[in-house]
Structure formats: C-alpha cells, structure tokens
Amino acid sequence: MLRRQFVAQLGASLLVTAPAWPQSVEPTIGFMSTRSAKDSARVITAFVKGLQEAGFDEGKNVSIEYKFAEGSLERLPEIANELVRSRVKLIVAVGGANSAMAAKAASATIPIVFVIGADPVKLGLAASLSRPGGNATGMTIFSAVLGPKRLELLRELVPRASVFAALTNPNTHEGRAQASDMSAAAQVLGLKLHLLEASDLEGIQRAFITLEQVKADALLVGSDPVFDVHRDKLVAMVAAAAIPAIFQFRDYAVAGGLMSYDPDIADAHRLAGIYVGRILKGAKVADLPIQQPIKFRLAINLKTAKTLRLEVPPALLLLADEVIE
Asked: Which regions in the chain score pLDDT beneath 50?
C-alpha cells in the first residue's frame, strides 16, 4: 500500500473512532529504546508529531515514560519489565529488534508498537506483515537488509578498491543478518570482505585496529543501534583512518560521514506515533498491518569526499537525494 493511501486511511479512521476512556484520564505510554536519549531526539520529535496527528498531546491527554538502554542490550529485558510493572497502556519498542523482542517477552497482552530494521515475521513478532495476529505491530524499515546495496554503492564510489571491511554487531538480530548478507553479496561481486565485530565502544575501537591491519580500501558500517549511540565517535574514527565509508542513516553523513543510504527513519517513528493513537482509540493490534518503507535515500558529503581526495562519479551524484557541501 502506498504511504499516502495508508495515511489517508489513518485520517479517516481517526474521524470515526471514539476514545476508549474519558479524556480526563491520561493513558501512559512506555517508550523504550536501545539507543540513547541524545541520539534519539530527532525520532522522538517525529513520534510525538505522529501522536499529535492522531489526537494525542503529551502532558494533556497522554503521558510518556521514556527508557533508554544507552546501547546496552542486556538492559532491555529489565526496562521492558519495569514498564510492565508500571502498568503502561502500551509499549513503544524502538532501536532495533532486540528492543521489540524484550517487550514481547515481557508481556503477551500489552499492545506493542515497534520500529525495527529486521523481518518481524522471521523473529516471531508477528504471524504476517498484513495481519500480525498478536499484541505487536509497527514499522520495519528493513535497514538491516540494505547491506548488499550499500556495498554496491561503496564499490561504485571507489571502483578500484578490492579489499572491503564491514563493521557489524554479532549480538543483535540485525547485525547477524547483515554479516551473512554482505558476505554473500561480496562473493557475488568478487570482492574480498573482512567482517569486523563490535558490540560496544571498546569493541569498535578494537575493530579499527583490525581495520588498519587488514589494509581495507573501504568500510561499510552496518545498521545497529549501538553504533548510533556512538555515532560521533565512530565518524571521528573513520575520519582518522582516512578510509571511504558508507553508513546506515543520514545523521552520519550530516555528522561528517562520507555517504549514507537509508529509509526515512523519522517518518517511520511518526507513523508509529499514529499507530499508537489508533490503538489508544480502540484499534486492535492484531489487525494493524506492519508497514514498510517505500523510499530510500542516498546522501553524499562532498566536503568529506574532498578531504579523502575522492572524485564522486557523476552518475552517483545524480542518484543522490541529498548532497552535503
């Protein structure tokens, strides 16, 4: 379904569905994320905007309890259990599949709206994309499966490169899938690919030592909420290594990364906010289809390209949705 059709249907349903409780009562939403509060500012703004479009204003007729794991995956189960003990009406689980899985494990009855980068059906979060069938639905941006496409774009930017490296997190569902997908893609493209693994800042630092040892010509930084938490430091390490790199979100290119290829994560959170509003007004989670992105964006930082003495191919510039100068 096209996004504009989806949003139109949402708008129509909001006009005819009555709230499930008196307006004097503030339903509490539990918002849990693998990422940090600082890193999540843009997506939280989008989520709140979606809530407002659905007729809910934080502090007026809804309250939100925010919980952030700060990149520590082991904290997610306890965060989810804390929200359940707080008797929230609904849990929003974002920042990767680990967050959604922790929420699902904590409650089989509280409605869950997620934003993840993996396949929710394969993870057992839903029976199908069109009819989730349980207590969880939301948005899958499928960022994790874009690894092969990012590898192709990076190869187009540095066509003479023969040795590539990819940084992934072996402790996340998205990270494990990316490692497998990119290894297969590299084999098809005839490229030598070194897989580097990291699950925290110290691991990222060790990975860059290995990166220098393998003498890679280019780097692909995988989709991972832990990497997002350390985005600025990661971009700085890539700059210090003076290696062409592609990242998962536009935020990296804005922060100085060379290139990014991503779905619109902010809009995914806005749509999650609209879904939350629908559920608070009485919609059944099991009947709300899991949404997918219909547009992906390529951003190129020309200033960084110049620093690396890279000539960006005209064809790649034409493909770019945003050129940062």
From this structure: 1-25
Q: Which long-range contacts (CB under 8 A, 24 or more apart) does 127-134 make?
A: 129/289, 129/290, 129/292, 130/289, 130/290, 131/286, 131/287, 131/289, 132/285, 132/286, 132/287, 132/288, 132/289, 132/290, 133/286, 134/108, 134/285, 134/286
pLDDT (tens digit, 9 = 90+) per residue, 296-322?
Answer: 999 999 999 999 999 999 999 999 999
Q: What is the CATH number of the domain that holds 244?
A: 3.40.50.2300
Rg from Cα positions in the chain: 20
Q: Are residues 110 and 216 in the same domain?
A: no
**Containing structural domain, residue 275:** 3-140+264-294
Distance CA 33, CA 247 (A): 20
Split into its structural domains, the chain has a count of: 2
- Is residue 249 located within the same domain as residue 282? no
Please state the separation of Cα 98 from the chain's center in Å.
12
Same domain, yes or no: 20 and 165: no
Nearest to 247 by CA among 227, 229, 233: 227
pLDDT tens-place string over residues 51-79: 999 999 999 999 999 999 999 999 999 99
pLDDT at 12: 42
**Domain check: are 209 and 125 in the same one?**
no
pLDDT confidence of residue 144: 64
Q: What is the DSSP letter of 27?
A: P
